[in-house]
Amino acid sequence: MAVIPQIALQVFRESVRDKVLYNLVLFAVMLIAASYLIGQLTAGQDVKIIKDLGLGATQVFGLFIAVFIGIGLVSKEVERRSIYSLLAKPVRRYELVLGKYAGLVLTLAVNIAVMAVALYAVLGYMAWVETEEFRQSWEAPATDPAMLLAIFLIFAQLMLVTAIALFFSTFLGPILSAMLTFGLIVVGHFNADLRNFENVVDSRAAAYLAKVLYYVLPNLAPFDVKAEVVHAQPVSLGYVALTTGYAVTYIGALLLAAMFIFARRDFK
Amino acid sequence: MTSRTHWWERPAPFAVAMVTLVAVFATSAEVRDRVYAGSRVETRLLYIQDGEVLTRMALSFDVLLADVYWIRALQHYGGTKRSEDGEKRYDLLGPLLDIATTLDPRFNAVYRFGAIFLTEGYPNGPGQPDLAIALLQKGIEEMPDKWEYYMDIGFIYYWWLQDYDTAAAWFEKAADVPGASWWLRSLAANTLATGGSRASSRRLWQQMYDTADNDWIRNESARRLTQLRALDDIDELIGAAQRFIAQSGRPPRSWEELIEAGLLAGFPVDPTGRPYVIDGTSGTINVSSDSELFPLPGETLPPS
Fold first, then answer.
1. Is the residue at B14 inside a domain?
2. B191-238: per-residue pLDDT in tens?
3. Residue-level pLDDT at B40
4. Same domain? B173 vs B254
């Protein structure tokens, strides 16, 4: 098991070498530029919009990293044929899968942590330059700690998306893996419709199938609490805990399936 | 074998070439925009008009998309208001605000500012108080505890529709919301008793000014208070014109006539410094059409 952290660190180093973390610079520049421009455009809504933009960009950047690196984690090793030298070492296949996953999650964690710090810094500056009277008119304080809940759930969602990408990566090529992962991300936001399908169709079989799909397909919409946080609506810790629990178990299932498939894959 | 260095690999020629190319394409764009500006068909389309559809398409970025539509609404309103076109069309303002509030139903600013924009009389706005009321009622459905929305509807009935009974009823509803400002109850009573009087209007806008939680609403209230001052000025000018009619048996054709008759000390200017205008044929007195106070709220009367 000690080999898993080593593989994880290797994946993290590789992503740094691949200049993945350069997106942080882009994020910071975008936030700073936007905070100035948006202030001129939005009739006093700059803090709200910077929060929306910062949280939205955190999610978008994270999704791209999770998908585009996730789909290559295993398939790239197979394409480059470096998988042979890896498997010749005293590394078990499941350790490789778990190590790769942990490495990308570490990359995402660092990425999101730096973005969160940048977002709070920009918002803190905006609060600092405003008058107390103006600050009173905001729905929530600029540096509202509740935003951390939204950021945490974004991270949980990205961990889940990474697991999906890794799962496909164990038996498909990168293009197909990317298409299927993006497909599941989209489906994951419409998933709730499947739950009440019996209200739309008469067929019991179709309604039953829809319900099965509701439970089987990832449900990503509950991870989005950005609007609640920005509008200072309460997000209970119970909700966050249950959503996190859902993510952890779903990730567990995906990793288990990925390990199972990868263990049986023939590379000859 | 020595490899030859091309000119574009050397920094100085490369920089000169880049600067030249950028200057050429920027200039060509500028010339094209100036010369052919009139021949371009302006795109004033909302490709997707249904906010619900957009909400689904936005996945989990609906709130961010609401910001985009809010900025579009601001640009549409501000751009149309400032445009030099003969006909100002604000036809996208209502749909843009509706979409923004469907994407983010708790977007407070869109309801309050949007209602101000929608009610503003032409040419400064579309003059659609009915749409403004509908927008605010949408906000009330989402956030029934926002007493400001009830008050804003009362304002629209008071100021734009001059329906003082309905205005008072909305102020009363606002006062009933837990946490509402204490003065709403007396505002409702005053509106019923003296609705339509200038003193009552002044009280209303002064309350709005004093309790505004942002610069936009405060500036708008200040502008309305200044318009009321202009209406007071116009009352005085009408008095002078009436005295002129009594002396000469006809309405004054210009300010010069009133000054020569000793009825005015000099050319009258509105509180923003723009001269008041008198129509030589009808005798109507008003603020200038290029004054920030134009148009005044329905009280530009000719001297009788």
1. no
2. 877 677 788 778 878 887 887 767 777 888 888 889 889 988 998 898
3. 55
4. no
pLDDT band, residue B299 (cuts 50/70/90): very low
CB distance B74–A134 less than 8 Å? no
- First-last CA distance in chain A: 26
Question: What is the number of structural domains in chain B?
Answer: 2
**Are B237 and B185 members of one domain?**
no
The DSSP output letter for B7 is G
Residue-wise pLDDT tens digits, B17-44 = 999 999 998 888 888 878 876 655 555 6
**Domain tally, chain A:** 1
What phi and psi, each to the nearest 5 degrees, are found at residue B285? Answer: -110, 135
Q: Tell whether A231 lies on the interface with B, counting CB pairs under 8 A.
A: yes
To probe the interface with B, which of A30, A48, A138 has the most B CB atoms within 10 Å? Answer: A48
Contacts 24+ apart (CB under 8 A), B70-76: B70/A42, B70/A45, B70/B96, B70/B100, B70/B107, B70/B109, B70/B110, B71/A38, B71/A41, B71/A42, B72/B96, B73/B97, B73/B100, B73/B110, B73/B114, B73/B117, B74/A41, B74/A42, B74/A43, B75/A41
B246 and B186 belong to one structural domain: no
The answer, for A130 touching chain B at a CB cutoff of 8 Å, is: no
Q: Which of B140, B171, B193 marks a domain boundary?
A: B193
Q: Is residue B150 part of a domain?
A: yes
Residue finishing a domain among B177, B193, B209: B193
The domain that holds B116 is classified in CATH as 1.25.40.10
Selecting from A134, A186, A230 the residue whose C-beta is nearest the C-beta of B63 gives A230
Host domain of residue B77? 51-193
Determine contact, residues B122/B88, Cβ cutoff 8 Å.
Answer: yes
φ/ψ (deg, to 5) at B59: 55, -120
* Domain residue limits at A112: 3-264
Say yes or no: B181 and B279 in one domain: no
| Interchain contact A136–B (C-beta under 8 A) | yes
- Closest CA of chain A from B58, distance in Å: 10
- Which residues pair with residue B285 across a beta bridge? B278
Per-residue pLDDT of chain A (268 residues; tens, 9 = 90+): 688 999 999 999 988 888 877 877 788 788 877 877 776 666 667 888 889 989 999 999 999 999 988 998 888 888 878 888 877 888 888 999 999 999 999 999 999 999 999 999 989 988 888 878 778 778 888 899 999 999 999 999 999 999 999 999 999 888 999 999 999 999 998 887 787 777 777 788 888 888 888 888 999 989 999 999 999 998 999 999 999 999 999 999 999 999 999 888 877 6
Residues of chain A contacting B64 with CB distance shorter than 8 Å: 52-53, 56
A-B Cβ pairs (cutoff 8 Å, strict): 60
Please check whether residues B177 and B261 belong to one and the same domain: no
B146 with B244, same domain: the answer is no
Q: Does B60 touch chain A (CB under 8 A)?
A: yes
Residue A17 identity = R
Report pLDDT for A8. 92
B172: in domain: yes
Residues of A in contact with B108 (CB under 8 A): 139
B109 touching A (Cβ < 8 Å): yes
